[in-house]
């Protein structure tokens, strides 16, 4: 049995790991070099899939923006990347699954196959999100900006939403809400914060795929992250793929994937920064670069 002395040493080590700026081992890195152009996203690259998720017949270069703005907290030598949607953002993963109810475009980490180590052990997912001032969202709709979709496509174990979340109570739609597994009824909001204009919102989410918990770290601008929740029970089992982008849901209809109403003339976007995942199995979490 561990003595109280040993326990206290291990908690001190954990505390040190959480508070000192350091490099934790990386699982994947989606931080984009400044040499990248939108066409760089059309070919196989070290950062994101060149083939998913985007409208049928489109190329990523038609929807990626590389805005000249101050980079996010963890983009010390890398640049923000904007993801946009239009009327053409209709994803069709197969001939009988043309997703006319959605308008969507998402970046998927290149190494994230659905069964790789990014959804095993203990990992911390990092990302920053900012509004695209020139391409505002329509907050009458629900949007998914970041999510983990299970490998059998049966659920999202973690989803950052904004806008009018279908099935949720009234509230300011101009809010970032981080939900746990959406197959829970009702899905649990792990953390929420106003979606401010002109500033990056920085998230770290420690995902324990063994204990089935999620702990949220958050800050804005270039402030270091701090824990805003404990490790909360959340069923993150089922592996899968991380998505970073804009998935706009339609309004009404019987089948959200196919029937939801989408008005024409869409020109909307979200800016991302500092997308990466680190290995936290030894307690390491980066709160600042
Ligand atoms: C926002 O979406 C609603 C519902 O689809 C639509 O009626 C409205 O015209 C849209 N507003 C703008 C500014 O596009």
Structure description:
It comes from Coniochaeta ligniaria NRRL 30616. Keywords: Signal. Residues 26-283 form the Glycoside hydrolase 131 catalytic N-terminal domain. Residues 1-21 form the signal peptide. This is Glycoside hydrolase 131 catalytic N-terminal domain-containing protein. The chain has 289 residues and is mostly beta strands. The chain has one domain (9-255, 263-278): Jelly Rolls. The chain contains one helix and 17 strands. The chain has one helix spanning 4-19, and strands spanning 26-29, 32-33, 64-65, 78-79, 81-86, 102-107, 122-131, 142-149, 156-163, 175-179, 189-194, 201-208, 213-220, 226-227, 232-233, 241-249, 267-279. Strands 1, 3, 5, 7, 12, 13, 14, 15 and 17 form a nine-stranded antiparallel sheet that branches. Strand 13 and strand 14 form a beta hairpin. The longest helix has 16 residues, at 4-19. It is globular and about 45 Å long. The model is unreliable at 1-10 (pLDDT under 50). Residues 138, 140-141, 251, 261, 263 line the site of 2-acetamido-2-deoxy-beta-D-glucopyranose.
């Amino acid at each position: 049995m561990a003595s109280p002395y040993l326990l206290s040493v291990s908690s001190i080590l954990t505390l040190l790991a959480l508070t000192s700026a350091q490099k934790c081992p990386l699982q994947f890195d989606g931080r984009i070099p400044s040499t990248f152009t939108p066409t760089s996203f059309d070919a196989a690259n070290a950062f994101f899939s060149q083939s998913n998720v985007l409208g049928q017949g489109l190329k990523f270069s038609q929807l990626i923006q590389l805005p000249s703005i101050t980079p996010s907290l963890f983009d010390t030598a890398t640049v923000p990347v904007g993801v946009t949607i239009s009327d053409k953002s209709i994803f069709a993963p197969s001939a009988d699954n043309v997703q006319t109810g959605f308008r969507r475009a998402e970046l998927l980490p290149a190494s994230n196959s659905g069964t790789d180590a990014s959804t095993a052990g203990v990992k911390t997912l990092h990302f920053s999100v900012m509004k695209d001032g020139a391409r505002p969202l329509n907050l009458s709709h629900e949007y998914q900006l970041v999510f983990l979709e299970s490998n059998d496509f049966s659920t999202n174990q973690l989803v950052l939403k904004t806008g009018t979340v279908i099935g949720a109570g009234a509230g300011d739609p101009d809010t970032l809400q981080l939900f746990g597994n959406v197959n829970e009824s009702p899905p649990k909001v792990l953390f929420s914060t106003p979606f401010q204009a002109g500033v990056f919102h920085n998230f770290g989410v420690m995902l324990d795929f063994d204990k089935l918990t999620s702990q949220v770290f958050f800050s804005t601008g270039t402030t270091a992250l701090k824990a805003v929740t404990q490790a909360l029970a959340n069923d993150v089992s089922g592996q899968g793929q991380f998505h970073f982008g804009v998935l706009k849901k339609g309004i009404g209809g019987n089948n959200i994937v196919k029937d939801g109403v989408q008005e024409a003339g869409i020109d909307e976007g979200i800016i991302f920064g500092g997308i990466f995942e680190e290995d936290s199995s030894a307690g390491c979490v980066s709160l600042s670069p």
